Structure formats: C-alpha cells, structure tokens
C-alpha cells in the first residue's frame, strides 16, 4: 500500500477528553499550540487526510467551544462527550459510531500529533489477520524495577515494547470487547480491552515521530517557533591571481595561481560558513568578519567557520551535514578531496561521512571557465539539539 487510496475504509476516534495537567498551564494540552496549530488539529487532520470517515472526537463535557477553536478550519468530524476514564471516553466514541457499522476503526490520542501515514498503512494491513493492531517500539534503555527507591530487580527489555496510538481494530470486535469490559479499576488501553475478550492483537512497527507530547519541554522546544530542522546555503567567489597562495577547505594547494582576498580567500570555507550562518539566520560572513577590519587581513578562514558553528550551537542547533561544490577548471580537486574533507570535518565537529566535497567545471564558460576565479557553493543542514531528527 503506497497511498491513502489503497487503504480500505475506516472510521476514526480521537480521544481529546483529558485534562493534560502534566504539561502545566490552564489549557488542556490537546488544545495547546504545537508547530503553529493545536495538537488536536494535527491529530484530526492526519487521520482525516488518511481517509478516516466518519470521525468522532471525544471531548470533556463543556469543552466544545475550546475544541472548536482548536480545530480551526477542520471539517468532517463530530463531537462526542467523554466519560470519567479513558475507557469510558473510548466507549462513548465507539457507541457513537455503532450506527454507521464501520468495518474498521482507528482509536488515536490527540496528544500524538505527528502521525506518519505508513504507520496507519501497517496497522490496517495487519487487520487482515488480526482483530486488533498496535504500533510499538523496542525499549532501548536498560530497565530497573523500583521498589520504593531501591532497585528490586531488572526487567528484560528484549520482550518489552513501548505502545503508541493509533490502535486499529475490527470495529465489531472492539465494540463488543468494550461493552464486556468489567474491570473499572485498571487503566488499560484498548488493545488490553480487546485481548481481555480473547481478540488477537498484532504488533506493528511504530515511529519515534509518534511520541506522546507529555512534558512542558516538548512545548518549550516549539514555542519559540524555531523548527527542528533547517537548511542554509552559501555562495562565494574569489579572483585567481599570480603570486597568491591557494587555500581551499583549509588545505594549501600547489598551483600556478592563488586566490586574492582580504583573508586567506578560502572560497570553499567562506561558502560553508555562510551556509551555516544562513541556516540559523545569523547574517553572513561579512557581518561577523568585516573586510574593513584589519584584524582579518590574511586570516585563516577556518576560524570563521568555527565561529559560525559556535553561533549555531548558541542558537540551539547542531550541524547535520555539509554539501559543498567547488567550481573551477583548475586545479584538479579530486586528489585533495580526502584532506579537504578531513579538515572540514575537524573544523565543524562533523563525521567525515557527513561532509561532501564535490567539484565541477563550467565547460570553459564564464569567469570560472576562463580561469579568472573560483566559485563555491554549499548547503548545510542543522537540527535542534535534543530533537530526534
Ligand atoms: Mg569570500
């Protein structure tokens, strides 16, 4: 299944009845902003986009005005009032759908706004053979059992899984399982409710992006509106003249000509530096190292790049990768590429595999073709520290 059109019909329930107090503040977290919209908006839009129809949103009694505001422009849903517990709320959603007799249903938490379509495809695919399917992830940390602040034992992470939502079910099975569910004391999820009535639940691969927004930090990362991932590009040209040294990527090359400029005129490092600065919106190389300042006369350009990487870190970003293209007829870049790559990696703290150095000619056309100068362009990606991307 590669597109939503290949998915069979399914109904959706978004559970948005919680108070979400752990995140802090007066507004229930499903109504709070994340990437420019409410959590609820994101969760509903993705399910609708994947084809969920009909779709019910379970909200707390009296929360309709807040929910409508949070859904700003969404269509194709219906509100249902939830109950005292999550089970009660899901049950209310299922009962509201019963008249439609859907074959399949996805039950989702509003607090998981980033829902990749392939997860939905895996879940629904698994319902061919099972009454239920849940997205899970392996446990990567080691586990301890807490007995009042003392370690009482260890749990085997190999057999444990982190369970996410949405959870997918054959509608008739999950409805009857909920109707039969008697255990009012245990806060189980819907898969546990189904399993308790004998239904088989398939485990499919979840996705780290589906993580539940729980703590205030998840919002903090977002409230300054800085995206988790950004790119920057840089471009530079220097003249080739006789009697100058030729520095490229912090490496001195033997050549008939060298590059002219106020600093060492390392056109490649200048392009990368501008790309880093561009990615974090910190101006350009001239802002930080003005050619009018005699201090930078003959300066090695590696320090410009190191400074740009520090500014990016100060803005909360780590470098992801660099892709550089050097444009000239001569000298040949290939023989020097390993040394250049190692030096750029050293200056930026990146692994060499994250540094790409490419070269091209312009077929003897233009100023680079005539050997009057060397041009360089670079693209750099940066990601917010602490983000998983
Ligand atoms: Mg320059």
Overview of this structure, please?
The chain is α/β, with parallel strands linked by helices and 389 residues long. The protein has 2 domains: 10-219, Alpha-Beta Complex (Spore Coat Polysaccharide Biosynthesis Protein SpsA, Chain A); 229-384, 60s Ribosomal Protein L30, Chain: A. It is built from 12 helices and 19 strands. The strands form 5 sheets. Strands 1, 4, 5, 6, 7, 10, 11 and 12 form an 8-stranded mixed sheet that branches. The chain has a 5-stranded mixed sheet with strand order 16-13-19-17-18. α11 (337-348) links the parallel β17 (317-327) and β18 (355-360). 39% of the residues are buried. The mean pLDDT is 89. Bound molecules: magnesium ion.
Summarize the structure.
With 389 residues, the protein is an alpha/beta fold. The protein folds into two domains: 10-219, Spore Coat Polysaccharide Biosynthesis Protein SpsA, Chain A; 229-384, 60s Ribosomal Protein L30, Chain: A (2-Layer Sandwich), CATH 3.30.1330.
Q: Could you list some keywords that capture this structure?
A:
389 residues; alpha/beta; Spore Coat Polysaccharide Biosynthesis Protein SpsA, Chain A; 60s Ribosomal Protein L30, Chain: A; 2 domains; 8-stranded mixed sheet; 5-stranded mixed sheet; 12 helices; binds magnesium ion
CATH architecture descriptor of the largest domain = Alpha-Beta Complex
Q: Main sheet, how many strands, which sense, barrel?
A: 8 strands, mixed
What is the assigned CATH homologous superfamily of the largest domain? Spore Coat Polysaccharide Biosynthesis Protein SpsA, Chain A
Determine and state the CATH class of the largest domain: Alpha Beta
Write out the distinct hetero groups bound to the structure.
Answer: magnesium ion
CATH topology of the largest domain: Spore Coat Polysaccharide Biosynthesis Protein SpsA, Chain A
Helical proportion? 25-40%
Low-confidence stretches: none
Q: What would the average pLDDT be, to the nearest integer?
A: 89
Multimeric state of these chains? single chain
Q: How many extended strands?
A: 19
By secondary-structure content and strand pairing, the structural class works out as alpha/beta
> Rough shape?
elongated
Secondary structure tally, helices: 12
Q: Could you give the distance between the termini?
A: 25 Å
């Amino acid at each position: 299944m590669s597109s939503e059109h290949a998915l069979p019909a399914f109904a959706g329930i978004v559970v948005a009845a919680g108070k979400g107090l752990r995140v802090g503040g007066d507004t229930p977290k499903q109504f709070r902003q994340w990437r420019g919209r409410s959590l609820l908006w994101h969760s509903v839009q993705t399910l609708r986009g994947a084809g969920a129809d009909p779709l019910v949103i379970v909200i707390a009694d009296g929360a309709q005005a807040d929910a409508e505001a949070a859904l700003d422009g969404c269509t194709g849903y219906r509100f249902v009032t939830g109950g005292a517990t999550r089970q009660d709320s899901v049950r209310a959603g299922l009962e509201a759908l019963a008249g439609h007799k859907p074959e399949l249903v996805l039950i989702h938490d509003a607090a998981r706004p980033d829902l990749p379509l392939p997860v939905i495809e895996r879940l629904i695919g698994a319902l061919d053979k099972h009454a239920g399917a849940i997205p899970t992830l392996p446990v990567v940390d080691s586990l301890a059992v807490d007995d009042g602040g003392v370690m009482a034992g260890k749990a085997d992470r190999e057999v444990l899984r982190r369970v996410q939502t949405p959870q997918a079910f054959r509608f008739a099975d999950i409805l009857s399982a909920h109707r039969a569910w008697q255990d009012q004391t245990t806060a189980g999820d819907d898969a546990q409710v189904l399993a308790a009535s004998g239904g088989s639940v398939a485990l499919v691969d979840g996705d780290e992006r589906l993580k539940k927004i729980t703590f205030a930090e998840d919002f903090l990362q977002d409230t300054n509106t800085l995206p988790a991932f950004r790119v920057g590009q840089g471009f530079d040209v220097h003249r080739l003249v006789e009697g100058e040294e030729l520095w490229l990527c912090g490496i001195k090359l033997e050549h008939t000509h060298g590059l002219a400029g106020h600093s060492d005129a390392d056109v490649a490092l200048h392009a990368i530096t501008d790309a880093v600065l561009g990615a974090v919106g910190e101006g350009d190389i001239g802002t930080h190292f003005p050619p009018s300042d005699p201090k930078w006369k003959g300066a090695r350009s590696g320090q410009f790049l190191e400074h740009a990487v520090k500014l990016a870190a100060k803005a909360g970003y780590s470098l992801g990768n660099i892709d550089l293209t050097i444009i000239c007829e001569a000298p040949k870049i290939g023989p020097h590429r390993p040394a250049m790559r190692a030096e750029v990696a050293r200056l930026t703290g990146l692994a060499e595999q994250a540094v790409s150095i490419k070269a091209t000619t312009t077929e003897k056309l233009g100023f680079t073709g005539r050997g009057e100068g060397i041009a360089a362009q670079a693209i750099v990606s940066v990601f917010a520290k602490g983000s998983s991307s």
